[in-house]
Amino acid sequence: MFLAPSAKLERMGRFASTVEFYARYREPYPRRFFQKVAEQITFHGDETLLDIGCGPGLLAIGFAPFVGSCTGLDPEPGMITAAKAAAAEAGVALSLIHGRIEEFPITQTYDVVTIGRAHHWLERTPTLAVLERILAPDSGRILICRASSVETPETPWVKPYRKVRSAWASGPAEKHYRIHPSEWFADSCFSAVGETSVTERRQVTIADLIGRALSRSNTSPEAVAGGQEQFEAEIAAALEPFVQDGVLVEQIVARASTFGRLP
Fold first, then answer.
1. Does position 109 have pLDDT exceeding 50, yes or no?
2. For the chain, does the N or the C end have fewer beta carbons within 10 angstroms?
3. Are 49 and 112 in contact (CB under 8 A)?
4. What string of H, E and C letters represents the secondary structure of 179-228?
């Protein structure tokens, strides 16, 4: 069920063409999400946090006000550049490292490790070995975070939107790499200790959702190649019947699965 390393590396390269779309259009984490997680885990404000596969820094920047220091790690140089710009714009101090967690050379420990929308890309065995080495003993926590737009009676556009994306998607079906965190950590020294979720209702435009589709590795500008104009047109046509006053209603659910060391 886990992707072979060669497949992961090949697909990781596709994020190079998603950088400009990722920070602007991916499903956002509501501000209340960070507050709620910080309260449930009882952050004291002096924790060290490592965000693995940080992308443009969405998680690291969001958690920064609740911890002492944040470090972002990502194998895509363009994402590191984007995270640096986003942190500067947000007025957040963020240390950034270009590299892969499987080869992480730093020996310091971290109180909090976050992984957002990225654990399915990681080589499981070497990553678990690194996590065991760098997570602070006893109180250290790993947060697997994700935010997604969910289908509700108020959001009937979600299904046709996903249908267009699936028709154009390159590579393995999404179900093959959306492995649940509990399964990913199975038979390791880490176990689930909690779950946090926050729901937010917001508005989006067709342009926002086209940008979001292009932010994903399997429908990135590189993946859809010469068909990008047609791809965008099909998304617009699928969404148009649901637009009211220029916008669509969206419901975002942000979740964090918390893991700690087995006692």
1. yes
2. C
3. yes
4. CCHHHHCCCCCEEEEEEEEEEEEEEECHHHHHHHHHCCHHHCHHHHHHHH
pTM tops 0.70, yes or no = yes
Burial, 144: exposed, middle or buried (Cβ in 10 Å; 0-12, 13-18, 19+)?
buried
What whole-number distance in Å separates Cα of residue 242 and Cα of residue 163?
15
Q: What is the CA angle 2-115-252, rounded to 5? A: 100
Return the bridge partners of 202, or none: 250
The torsion angles phi and psi of 32, rounded to 5 degrees, stand at: -65, -25
The Cα 77–Cα 161 span in angstroms is 30
Whole-angstrom distance, CA of residue 115 vs CA of residue 100 = 13
Sheet architecture: strand order including 141-149: 95-98, 69-74, 48-52, 112-116, 141-149, 248-261, 190-204
The pLDDT assigned to 225 comes to 84
Q: What is the pLDDT of residue 172?
A: 52
**How buried is residue 103: exposed, middle or buried, by Cβ count under 10 Å (0-12/13-18/19+)?**
exposed
Q: How many residues does the chain have?
A: 263
Cross-strand pairs, 114? 51, 143
**pLDDT tens by residue, 191-238:** 999 999 999 999 999 999 999 999 998 899 998 988 999 999 999 999
pLDDT of residue 105: 86
Mean pLDDT of 61-73: 97
Cβ-Cβ contacts under 8 Å for 194 (sequence gap 6 or more): 40, 41, 257, 258
| Gap between the Cα atoms of 103 and 137, Å rounded | 21
Distance from C-alpha of 235 to C-alpha of 210, rounded to nearest angstrom? 7
Report, as an integer, the average pLDDT of 127-144: 95
